[in-house]
Amino acid sequence: MMPDQNGQPADFPKGFLWGAATAAHQVEGNNINSDLWVMEHVKPTLFVEPSMDACDHYHRFAEDIRLLASLGLNTYRFSIEWARIEPERGAFSRAELEHYRRMLAACHEAGVTPMVTFYHFSSPRWFAGLNGWENPDAGDLFVRYCDRASKHLGDLISYATTYNEPNLPMLLKWVTDLGISLLTVKFMISHATRRIGGDHFGCFFLGNAEKLETAMIAAHHRAREAMKSGPGKYPVGLSIALQDEQPFGPKSKRDKKCAEVYDPWLQAANSSDFIGVQAYTRQRVGSKKDIPPDPGAELTQMGYEYWPEALEGAVRYAASKVRVPIYVTENGVATEDDKRRIDYIHRALIGLEKCLADGIDVRGYIHWTLMDNFEWILGFRPKFGLVAVNRETQERTVKPSARYLGSIARANAVTAPVGK
Q1: Residue 389: C-alpha distances to residues 29, 55, 143, 381, 411 (Å)
Q2: Staple 57 to which of 27, 89, 118, 330, CB 3.0 to 4.6 Å?
Q3: Rounded to whole angstroms, how far apart are CA atoms 414 and 420?
Q4: What is the tens place of the pLDDT at every residue in 342-368?
Q5: How far is CA 76 from CA 135, 214, 347, in A?
Q6: H or E stretch at 387
Q7: Please, are residues 398 and 383 in contact by the beta-carbon 8 Å criterion?
C-alpha cells in the first residue's frame, strides 16, 4: 500500500468503483444484425475467425454478474448492442430492450453498479449500409437510438458513456504498420456492400478519421442530452483510448499527436459528466509516426509493449486537460501468463495511487476484461480475461488475477501480490 502523509497505508477514496468490463459483440454471441458479423463472414476478411457464440454471455449474463460480485468487485461496465435494439432502421425491439433491462436488474440484485456503453464499435448492418458515420444523417440516427434505449433503461442505469474509444481511427493513423492488407480491406468492404445491398459499407474501424470525429463529437453532445431527458439521474461521459505518449528524438511529433488524437475528445469531455481513460501501453513518437518497441522488449499478445506504468501517464495527461472526474474504464493486458497479469495490475494501480496522492480526481478502476473473449480481428487468441472461458463448454474458470484484484477491491487499497 502507498503510505499517506502520516506514514499509514493509504486507501482509495470511499465509494471508489472497482470493476471489470465487457463489450456486447465480444461476449454475447450471434450478433447477426451487426456490421462486424457481416465482415467476419465475407471472403476475404481481416478476421482470423468469426465470433459465433462468443462467450454466450447473452444467455449467461446473470451467472457472470454474480461471479463478478463474488470476486469482490462492485461495478460492471458493459455495452448494449444497437444492432439488437434496432435491427432494422426505425424498428426497435422491445424484447431486446427488456433483455438489457434484465441485465441491469441482475446487476442491482447482485449489489453491482452498472455502467452502460451505448456504442462499442459495432453498428447495425443497415447503418453500415448507409456508409456508417460518414452519412450526413448518422448523428440523427444515433441520437434517436440513444433516446429510445435510455427511455426504456434509464431508471436502472448508474453511469453511461455514449461511445467506447471514438478516437481510435485517429489513433491508428499514427501507427507505422497496421499489419493488414489494404487489398484485403478493399475486397472485404466491396463484398460486405454487396451482401447487405447498400450503397457503401461504412465501418467505424475503417472510416475517414476526420469525418468520424466531427460527426461523433456533435452526436455525443446531443445523445447525452437525450439520455439526461429520460428517466433516471446518472452521469453521462465518454471513454477514449489513451496511451502514455513519450517523445523519441529531438524532432518528436508527440505534442502534435496528442493535440490531434486526444485533445478534441478531452475538450468534449469537459461538457460531459466524466471522462473514461482507457490505457494499455506506452508509445514513443518519432519525427513522423510512432516508433516500434525496441527489439527484445516484452510484448503482449496484442503486440503492445508490456508497460503497466502507462496508466499513470495516461491519467495524468487527461487530468491536465479536463475539469471533470476521471474513471479508468479499461486497463489490462493480453497474456497467457496470469502471473504477468497480476504484476501488471499491481504496477498499474501503484501508479494510480500516485495520481490520487497528487490530488487527481480518479473515482474508479474497471479492468479489461471480465472474461477471455473475441478480440476483434485477432479472434479468440488474445487472453485479456480475469476469468477463463472454455470454448467448447462455456465453463468459466476464475484466474488468480481475478482473486488478486478482488482482494484489492475489498480492501480498497493496493496490496502486494503473494510472494512479493
Answers
A1: 13, 7, 35, 12, 27
A2: 27
A3: 13
A4: 999 999 999 999 999 999 999 999 999
A5: 33, 30, 22
A6: strand 387-389
A7: no
Query: Distance between CA 328 and CA 309 in Å, rounded?
Result: 14
**Class of the 17-411 domain?**
alpha beta
Where do runs of H (alpha helix) occur along 229-270?
254-261, 263-269
Point out the catalytic residue in the list 165, 213, 260, 375: 165
CA distance 239 to 275: 6
Q: What are phi and psi of 62, to 5 degrees?
A: -65, -45
Return the bridge partners of 238, or none.
275
For 136-171, what is each residue's pLDDT tens digit? 999 999 999 999 999 999 999 999 999 999 999 999
Pairing outcome for strands 244-247 and 290-291: unpaired
Of residues 116, 216, 226, 222, the one with CA closest to residue 166: 216
DSSP string, 325-355: -EEEEE-----S-HHHHHHHHHHHHHHHHHH
CA distances (Å), 326 to each of 35, 287, 292, 301, 316, in order?
31, 31, 29, 28, 10
Rg (CA), the chain: 20
Distance CA 25, CA 180 (A): 22
Cβ contact 128:38 at 8 Å: yes
**Contact status, residue 32 vs residue 24, Cβ threshold 8 Å:** no
Is 28 one of the catalytic residues?
no
Kindly report, residue by residue over 37-73, the tens digit of the pLDDT: 999 999 999 999 999 999 999 999 999 999 999 999 9
Distance CA 298, CA 283 (A): 14
C-alpha cell at 196: 447487405
- DSSP-derived secondary structure letter, 84: H
pLDDT of residue 197: 85
Please say whether the beta carbons of 282 and 246 come within 8 A. Answer: yes
Kindly give the pairing relationship between strand 326-330 and strand 362-368: parallel
Q: Is the peptide bond before 44 cis (omega within 30 degrees of 0)?
A: yes
